[in-house]
């Protein structure tokens, strides 16, 4: 293939950039365990209330400075809501939807996950800064979507 | 070539487009720009609402407006322009449309219109407020999905018509390369056809479920099938836009096109690599392993490669042309470009917009970065740069000469000035809006959400200064929309009669001969299907048997 020398240099740099991006993403995902939320368990979406652990949603302490929030998302609310945890805790959110597709986002953090009916989703976050964080649904879920929010207070 | 055909060919070159073929393109363009008008007005309503300036009446809620805005601009505006444009190309390049093909594309037109009416009625009745992505288990009225089936069938008619036209021409011109714009058209219709197969399967799963004949539906499978189509669709509009960059823009600036061979390689790469790209819409979904997601980072990023080839090609053409016109120094060629010609200015701004737009796309494709941006207004900002600037401005730029061409009229100096002004307005409006959306998205403001302060939460209140720009940008944009729609109908019905030229740049001097393997579409399609299989077989098989969901109406 006949190509100008400058174009060869440009395309070599382009390939290097793409591969560089890929390697960094791979390193972060597999070495630093910063991969995107990808939990693979399923659940019958019509029996969420009867299936453990979602039969008792709430905040559970699982270790020193470690908490698990078992949460259901439904139109147009989060259960439990208005969560409180001490500063410095590592919190695992274990979530599922009781109806349609929802999004779970904590504004001002990197917590962002799709929560779909039929699937259990998990995401982990350490909260070092005290404050009242806004949790909101970021996937259109119906007429009251803009009201679907709660807070997590870090003390 | 037979004598009769030769005559017809010459007549085509001298007398312009066959009037029957022109009517096809004019009809498609009419729908295109009516969709832009209505979709644009709906967009303004949303911008005003989202800025907290306008409360919509109870009979027309924000999400209804948003569903219609998306359907009109992502589906109708783009699809009708692409088909109208490429059918004028096929007519011009390939000795006029065959009568059979003409009939097919008209049937396709009718099917799409029927489908569109069927889809819009439930949206207006608030029975299909499900967005253009219609993710199950939200269930719209069955009529909405039946409408979508007709739209897909209509697109297939246009695609098959194009295949027949191309195959017929190739039979008559053995050993000749397909003219470059028709090569682009073939790539676009191949992608349109293959990418709409997954969404057709999805809709056929949804219809019995929305009627209540099936109890549940597989949510993740539907979503995955949707994005195999949804993301390819945006790349189809992009491929349509770059056809104008590679072939038409060099002609407008008085230059020649970039290497024919590399142009065809870019088209082939975009056809092969595109469909798996849809997966990066699902980076933070459950039910898909990190390993599969990582493979898809590579598959999505790979699409960046042909785009970077295009970036080089465009600037190479600009520089070469400028230097031929006597430009000196490193950037002297920049001043030699015809900035006052709307046929250049609009696609040029489109290309420049693709630099940040493409970079933003790479961000969203990369797992960890996507987690920050996913479903925030950043994403909305991104596709207002890609679709709203890169694609739309290219289409507008083409419309300023193609509409007069198919209408037997000319673009006057006055209309050109009007177009330049309109392009600048559009650029200002869209940039204000898109930049604000990107920034506020990073702060966490979600997309697809009507105005909300979330109980006056301080974080949400902090977004308000940015959201004002959605209203300002939207207001400027609606003026540009009105001007564009006026321009198109003026050029179609009112502009002075005369002969325009179909703008196609010549190949570069002493070009190397393009190898003939580029013409083997069967092989290109086979490689594409292998890549699609590599991307989708594992996750799709994984989803089968997952617990399903009953239909919900949550609006």
CATH class of the largest domain in chain A: Mainly Beta
What's the number of structural domains of chain A? 2
CATH architecture of the largest domain in chain A: Sandwich
The CATH homologous superfamily of the largest domain in chain A is termed Cupredoxins -  blue copper proteins
Helix percentage range of chain B: over 70%
Rounded radius of gyration of chain A (Å)? 20 Å
* Strand runs of chain B, count: 0
Topology, number of strands of chain A: 10
Q: Distance between termini of chain B?
A: 61 Å
Q: How would you describe what is shown here?
A:
The complex is a heterodimer of chains A (155) and B (555). Chain A is an alpha+beta fold and 155 residues long. Chain A has one helix spanning 5-31, and strands at 58-63, 66-74, 77-79, 83-85, 89-97, 102-106, 112-115, 121-127, 131-136, 149-154. Chain A has 2 domains: 1-35; 48-154, Cupredoxins -  blue copper proteins (Immunoglobulin-like). Chain A is built from 1 helix and 10 strands, in the order αββββββββββ. In chain A, the strands form 2 sheets. In chain A, strands 1, 2, 3, 5 and 8 form a 5-stranded mixed sheet that branches. Chain A starts with a helix and ends with a strand. Chain B is mainly alpha-helical. Chain B contains 17 helices and no strands. Among the domains of chain B are: 18-217, Cytochrome C Oxidase, Chain A, CATH 1.20.210.10; 338-503, Cytochrome c oxidase-like, subunit I domain (Cytochrome C Oxidase, Chain A, Up-down Bundle). The N and C termini of chain B lie far apart (61 Å). Classes of the chains: A alpha+beta (155), B mainly alpha (555). At the A-B interface, helix 1, strand 7 and strand 9 of A face helix 3, helix 7, helix 8, helix 9 and helix 10 of B.
